[in-house]
Amino acid sequence: MEFRHSQCDVAGASLHVVEAGDPAGPPVLFLHGWPQSWRTWRDLMKLGAPAARMIAIDLPGIGRSTGPATTGAKGEIAAVVHDLIATMGLADVTLVGHDVGGVVAYSYVRSYADVSRVVILNTAIPGLDPWNSVVTNPFVWHIAFHGTPELPELLVQGHQRRYFDYFYDLLAPRPGAITAEARQEYADAYASDAALTAGFNWYRAFGKDAHHHQAMADQPIAAPLLYLHGDHEFGDVDAAVAGLRAVNVERLEFAVLANAGHFAQEDAPGAVWEQIARFAGLS
């Protein structure tokens, strides 16, 4: 499988763009979460390449994406993604986001109407139920830690690989789902002080994200939205789906993925792609 790497200049930043599949095919655009990079979509992109134009990016400030990393607010990152879609001339886009990337995808569909459908994997959306119960649960202690100014950078710099391994091991249903090679690539993507701060800023901006989403909750979302949840993932999928329905997501579907934890795209790429392909009419 050939992966095509390029840099795309948008919004004062240079985004690392990775593509696979037919350049003339229907585009599927992937947004990663923490602590990962475009690499998390690698297996999924191989599966989807025969049917679509598979596109993944390093989020602003991460990996080979350079320039302004934004404040971490998901609406700002969504604006960068919006500029990317326009610059690349993409149409009939399926936007897929995992973890923080899923929050960006939600912010995107709240602000823009130029994507045809959205898929969100394994994330709670700030400002929507059950967000408050998520952030007060001791199991997700790292949300508060990462949101602390300066301290996470001080303690994690130089220890990225071992720190990230804790989360990969805790949140995967089977050892080795995230390979040693992938883990090293993720550590490398956050190796610089600037990249670490870009990632932790995503957590520091959650309060702003919640306010932004609550302010727009009365506006309906007409684009179809698919919410995917691993059966080994933390949290209550029914509560997450109810939270989305409560804020006028008019065309909502959801599915639970067997044998998948938080990093479902690496735990069970076949099951994830099957759901995306069905939802986007690519199967």
Structure overview:
Helix 1 (42-48) crosses helix 13 (269-280), helix 2 crosses helix 3 (100-111) and helix 7 packs across helix 8 (180-189). This protein has 283 residues and is an alpha/beta fold. Strand 1 (4-10) and strand 2 (13-20) form a beta hairpin. The protein has one domain: Alpha/Beta hydrolase fold, catalytic domain (Rossmann fold), CATH 3.40.50. The protein is globular and about 45 Å long. Strands 1-2-4-3-5-6-7-8 form an eight-stranded mixed β-sheet, sandwiched between helices. The chain has helices spanning 42-48, 74-88, 100-111, 131-135, 142-146, 151-156, 160-171, 180-189, 193-204, 206-215, 237-245, 264-267, 269-280; strands at 4-10, 13-20, 27-31, 53-57, 94-98, 117-121, 225-230, 252-257.
Q: How much of the polypeptide forms β-strand, as a percent range?
A: 15-25%
Approximate helicity band: 40-55%
Q: Please, what is the CATH homologous superfamily? A: Alpha/Beta hydrolase fold, catalytic domain
Task: Record the strand order, biggest sheet.
Answer: 1-2-4-3-5-6-7-8
Alpha-beta content class: alpha/beta
What is the CATH topology classification name?
Rossmann fold
Please tell me what the overall shape is: globular
Using only C-alpha atoms, the radius of gyration works out to: 17 Å
Strand count: 8
Number of H- or I-type helical stretches: 13
- Calculate the terminal CA-CA distance, rounded to whole Å: 20 Å
Domain module count: 1
> Low-confidence runs (pLDDT<50, min 5 residues)?
none
**Main β-sheet description:** 8 strands, mixed
Mean pLDDT: 97
Order of SSEs: EEEHEHEHEHHHHHHHEHEHH
What's the CATH class label? Answer: Alpha Beta
Architecture (CATH level 2) name: 3-Layer(aba) Sandwich
